[in-house]
Design brief:
The complex is a heterotrimer of chains A (270), B (400) and C (426). With 270 residues, chain A is an alpha/beta fold. Chain A has 8 helices and 10 strands. Chain A is globular. Chain C has helices spanning 8-27, 33-54, 68-73, 83-87, 94-99, 109-120, 137-147, 168-188, 195-218, 230-240, 247-265, 288-299, 321-334, 339-342, 347-359, 374-377, 380-390, 409-422, and strands at residues 59-61, 77-79, 128-132, 157-160, 276-280, 301-306, 364-367, 394-396. In chain C, strands 2-1-3-4 form a 4-stranded parallel β-sheet, sandwiched between helices. Chain C is an alpha/beta fold. The chains are: A alpha/beta (270), B alpha/beta (400), C alpha/beta (426).
Chain lengths: 270, 400, 426
């Protein structure tokens, strides 16, 4: 029996299709203004890759993320905190701390050895420390996000970016560029300033190794190295970190059809 | 749809009411509106209504004067535009919404407003209200910041001034007999509400948290005699109500003067049931009675300063508050605690730290939330609340 | 390895840094006598704290405005958790450390630093604590948090309950609180109150405040003889944050007076061409120096008065124990900076602004809108009306007096520049 996990974020929609304990396919699409449309687009691609013909081939679709409650074909939804924790723990059972740096928010999740959420903290009020900040800065540099990351990795002397707010930081960057500071150093300085925000959030709740990063920004090697340096701890790099939330959702979907969890305890159903 | 969705649907219909009492519907209407029929009728008979901005004000004195004490809320406020010239973004949204309503004339049925120096925001709300809004009678009470016999004495002096000022302004006389009678009436309210709270202890309780809050809030804006007789009937109705059969996560809500039914609805639509609280419109309001012996003003001062379950406004009470919370957890079989704070609130902001430390030590699942008075970040609240409830349900709290 | 006592390492660093400042001043071409004496007093104070920690002597955690005269009379050394953290802010990453604690971001930087400092143990664990519960909500809250921090849970505590008003009845009530505080200290710190000693200390403080008032009169002159915030910073520390009634503090005020007088006689204003006289309607921020420098150089602007420096202290009658205690009560309720303006109704703030604008011939008022002063920010309409009546423009900002990152200085400069330009003050 096939199941799907659907993670509808602010920046991207992700789907993972599983059968038994195996990932059959996955997809990532740019989010549209309609979560329903985003979910269908992502699902179409994943279904095709799994050589399935339609939604009817799926026995359970579990949703998470911002748009989770409004998609018609989602059977059940769970919070992205629960799903990211499950996905990370399945891929790496020694995970005890998950840091999810998404498009518009950042979360730190603590798990126990069974992969259950013990505690969590979120920053979803401010773009600083999220993918949005990177996006804005890459635009200021007039380059792609990948190019921005590559640029930052070239620096050994990061500039000191004093502004926490992404709006103020943008004008500070322009001033630095115009005063002839090496763009690589500025890019590295920006990564450091995001690091400081994320580190502050991590410290607010505490952390236990192993630490795993999920979400789109987990692919940003410059950011991961900067955080490793600040925490003096190695961060475990998981393959395809962006789909971990959807993977967690798919794993829960598998559990549901196996009837392992008492269905009377389900939260929200559409 | 598949075979599992039907199964899930029939077991998770959280919106189904268990108590069909007409009174419940009436109380919800009262809680959801600034003016209610009983208040309107009171005004039509030339009754006076005195707005109480916040707690620590002995409403009994107002009742004794034959007036209606009215706890002020900014229910259904649509914005804070008219408060922008008097307050800033670092001021509490409750205060800004309330002031906005006042400026719009939505509270012009108030014949007077009384407040205490509860917090920095409220005390300046009073100053601004006095200056800009035409409410005939205004009075300010200075409430102590700690507990002690000297503080009771000091607050009694304040209550004497308040009583005299009410008498003078409204050309009336408040006798000891009237005070005693008012205390008895308000105590009756507390006793009846405590009976209501007993219903929440049961594992298959027929009352929701949203219903409880609506019922308590309704009692703060209608005459107490009417309210007491309605409450009596409502208690009988609840005894006939369906019992809850769903396995919901039992939540306790901790916070200030939360009057937001929507917040509790969110929790109760995500698999939680708010079975207990430590709230101003809740436990703190109902738990203790005012002494009916001896001098009434002394009894009222003592009650407010020493006996009423405290909130962080009174220094040195965190141990007592933790003890209350521990007892409530036991008596109401609480599985997790959610605390809620309005942004810019220093008192509750730091108290969330105290609570976090205590609950962590005692391994009690805890979630700290904040949002504006009129909820703005509902999606973000839902994410956190859902994750919290899931974490309790999906795995019991075990620290590595 | 023996664990160092909380706060001791930090106090060693504070002491050594101050010693360094003193050496640098002594070795400079024209050693400033005021700064030399000031830092000597600070050094003496820090060394007392070190002595208390090292030798387990009684050490009280207190707050300015908590009747330091009484501690001095009982020979009890007191410290304020945030004092040195603020004074030495440029040399530490405490602000970043504070961000890592689970403290709401919308609170005052000083309060956040205080919570952080006790949590991480960079301040000593006191023998006893006197909790100040005024003027703002955060005072109640921070002392409660300290009591809920493991190291401080068992610290005996007495809280001073401040009434809301300014009547004689209120001062008598607070004098009662002070008596109860004395009884508490006698019990828990094992020191006795010596009213004769209290008399001498109060008389010395009377002389200090008289000299300060004299100095403030001189700042009314045009041009102002001294720079922005100067006496406010020094004055507040030597009256509230070191042993009360120190003759060295009186000497400093007299030096300030005589230096100001000399400058006035020589017609030497602080700025060559003084163009804008400002009332800064709050305490001095920790980032005052870059602000003051920029105001001077860019606009010839000077902060002639601020709330930290302006407090019309009353002379305390020392004839009886009662008159002394009521006098101290009045001083601590109604005359200490910020408590004066913030504790009760808005009337005193309005009165102070009115007097300062008139007496100091201010061209404008800058209201910093410190995030910790929520009551002040809710007084903004009264300030606007007042300044309109006084005929001076008002600039309302939003800052954190204790965290320069909150509103970056270049943003503030832009706001102030626009304000000056819009009102033709350039």
């Amino acid at each position: 029996m096939f199941v799907a996990g659907c993670d509808l974020g602010s920046a991207t929609g992700k789907v993972v299709i599983m059968r038994s304990n195996s990932i059959m396919s996955w997809s990532i699409v740019q989010s549209t203004i309609s979560p329903e449309k985003t979910a269908r687009l992502a699902l179409e691609i994943a279904l095709k890759k799994a050589k399935l013909s339609s939604l009817a081939d799926l026995h359970y679709v579990l949703g998470t993320g911002y748009g989770r409650q409004v998609v018609s074909f989602i059977t059940e939804n769970l919070s992205e905190i629960t799903c990211h924790a499950r996905g990370a723990h399945w891929l790496h059972p020694e995970t005890r701390t998950v840091v999810d740096v998404g498009g518009q928010d950042c979360k730190v999740i603590l798990l126990n050895s069974a992969g259950k959420v013990i505690d969590f903290v979120m920053n979803d009020k401010c773009a600083a420390g999220t993918g949005k900040f990177f996006e804005v800065m890459a635009r200021t540099f007039d380059c792609s996000l990948d190019e921005f990351v590559k640029l930052s990795l070239q620096s050994n002397t990061p500039a000191n970016i004093t502004k926490q707010c992404s709006v103020f930081a943008e004008s500070e960057v322009i001033t630095l560029i115009n005063s002839g500071i090496d763009p690589a150093d500025i890019a590295a300085g920006l990564v450091d300033s995001i690091t400081r925000r994320i580190i502050a959030l991590i410290h607010r709740i505490g952390y236990t190794p192993d630490i795993v990063f999920t979400g789109g920004c987990a692919k940003n090697e410059s950011l991961i190295r900067s955080i490793e340096k600040a925490l003096k701890v190695n961060i475990v790099r998981l393959p395809n970190p962006q789909i971990i939330g959807a993977l967690g959702a798919a794993l829960f979907a598998l559990e549901r059809i196996r009837g392992k969890v008492n269905n009377k305890n389900s939260t929200n159903v559409n | 749809m598949n075979e599992f969705s039907y199964f899930i649907n029939t077991n998770s219909n959280l919106k189904k009411k268990m108590c069909n009492s007409k009174l419940l519907k009436e109380f919800k209407e009262i809680a959801n509106n600034l003016i209610n029929p009983a208040l309107q009728s009171w005004k039509n008979q030339n009754g006076k209504v005195i707005g109480c901005m916040y707690p620590f004000i002995p409403e009994e004195i107002i009742s004794a004067a034959g007036m209606l004490p009215y706890r002020m809320k900014a229910t259904n406020s649509s914005g804070t535009e008219l408060s922008e010239s008097c307050f800033s973004q670092i001021n509490c949204t409750y205060v800004r919404h309330l002031f906005d309503l006042g400026m719009r004339g939505e509270l012009k049925f108030l014949d007077g407003v009384v407040t205490v120096n509860y917090c920095d925001h409220i005390r300046r709300l009073f100053d601004n209200w006095k200056s800009k809004i035409n409410t005939p009678y205004m009075h300010f009470l200075s409430f102590p910041k700690k507990r002690g016999e000297e503080q009771i004495e000091a607050y009694r002096k304040e209550l004497v001034k308040f009583k005299i000022s009410l008498e003078k302004f409204f050309n009336t006389n408040i006798t000891e007999k009237q005070l005693r009678s008012a205390i008895q009436c308000h105590n009756k309210t507390r006793q009846l509400l405590r009976k209501l709270y007993e219903l929440r202890k049961s594992k298959n309780s027929s009352i929701t948290g949203a219903e409880t809050l609506a019922i308590v809030m309704a009692g703060t804006v209608i005459p107490k005699e009417i309210y007491n007789s309605l409450l009596n009937q409502l208690l009988k109705d609840y005894n006939q109500a369906e019992k809850n059969t769903k396995n919901l996560v039992r939540i306790m809500l901790v916070g200030g003067e939360i009057d937001n039914l929507k917040l509790i609805d969110i929790i109760e639509n995500l698999g939680g049931l708010v079975v207990a609280d430590y709230l101003g419109y809740g436990f703190r309001y109902i738990w203790k009675d005012v002494d009916e012996e001896g001098d009434s003003l002394t009894a009222l001062a003592r009650y407010q300063v020493m006996e009423r379950p405290a909130d962080p406004r009174i220094f040195g009470t965190s141990v007592e508050r933790n003890d209350y919370i521990k007892k409530i957890i036991g008596q109401f079989s609480v599985e997790g605690i959610i605390s809620f704070r309005l942004p810019q609130c220093d008192l509750w902001g730091l108290d969330q730290i105290n609570l976090s430390r205590y609950l962590k030590k005692n391994k009690i699942p805890y979630l700290a939330l904040e949002d504006e008075y009129i909820l703005k970040s509902i999606g973000q609240l839902k994410t956190r609340i859902q994750a919290f409830i899931e974490s309790i349900r999906e795995g019991k709290y075990v620290k590595n | 390895m023996l664990k160092i006592k909380p706060g001791l390492q930090r106090f060693y660093e504070y002491r050594d840094r101050v010693k360094n400042f003193i050496t640098q001043i002594e070795q400079s071409p024209e050693p400033n006598p005021i700064l030399l004496r000031f830092y000597s007093l600070v050094l003496e104070n820090d060394e007392k704290t070190i002595d208390c920690i090292e030798n387990n002597k009684p050490l009280l955690s207190s707050w300015y405005g908590n009747a330091p005269e009484i501690y001095a009379a009982m020979d009890i050394h007191a410290f304020n958790v945030v004092d040195n953290i603020l004074a030495h802010q440029p040399f530490y990453n405490d602000l970043e450390g504070m961000d890592k604690c689970a403290i709401p971001m919308d609170m005052c930087g000083l309060i956040k630093l205080g919570v952080y400092a006790v949590e991480v143990g960079i301040v000593p664990t006191p023998t006893a604590m006197i909790a100040m519960l005024q003027p703002c909500d955060a005072q109640i809250a921070i002392h409660e948090v300290w009591k809920n921090t493991d190291n401080w849970f068992n610290v005996p505590t007495f809280a001073l309950d401040a009434p809301y008003g300014n009547s004689e009845e209120d001062y008598i009530y607070f004098a009662g609180e002070l008596k109860r505080m004395i009884a508490f200290l006698e019990d828990h710190v094992n020191r006795k109150m010596d009213y004769d000693r209290l008399r001498k200390i109060i008389e010395e403080t009377n002389r200090q405040y008289e000299a300060w008032a004299e100095y403030n009169e001189l700042r009314r002159s045009i041009p102002c003889p001294h720079g922005s915030f100067l006496a406010s910073k020094i004055g507040w520390i030597i009256t509230q944050h070191i042993t009360a009634g120190h003759p060295g503090a009186t000497e400093i005020f007299k030096l300030l007076v005589s230096d100001a007088e000399d400058r006035l006689k020589a017609k030497k204003g602080w700025i060559k061409k003084e163009k804008i006289r400002i009332l800064w309607a709050d305490l001095v921020p920790t980032w005052d120096i870059p602000l003051a420098d920029w105001l001077e150089k860019e606009y010839g602007a000077i902060v002639v008065m601020d709330f930290q420096g302006y407090t019309p202290y009353s002379y305390i009658d020392t004839s009886t124990e009662e008159s002394m205690l009521v006098g101290i009560a009045k001083r601590n309720l109604s005359e200490v900076p910020m408590i004066r303006q913030a504790r009760g109704t808005i009337d005193i703030m309005i009165e102070d602004i009115t007097r300062i604008v008139k007496d100091y011939k201010c061209d404008c008022v800058i209201f910093p809108g410190h995030v910790g002063h929520k009551d002040q920010s809710a007084s903004i309409s009264f300030l606007k009306e007042l300044c309109r009546d006084l005929g001076v423009p008002l600039l309302a900002l939003t800052v954190d007096n204790f965290d320069p990152r909150y509103t970056p200085i270049d943003v503030l400069k832009r706001q102030i520049s626009e304000f000056f330009d819009a009102h033709g003050l350039r």
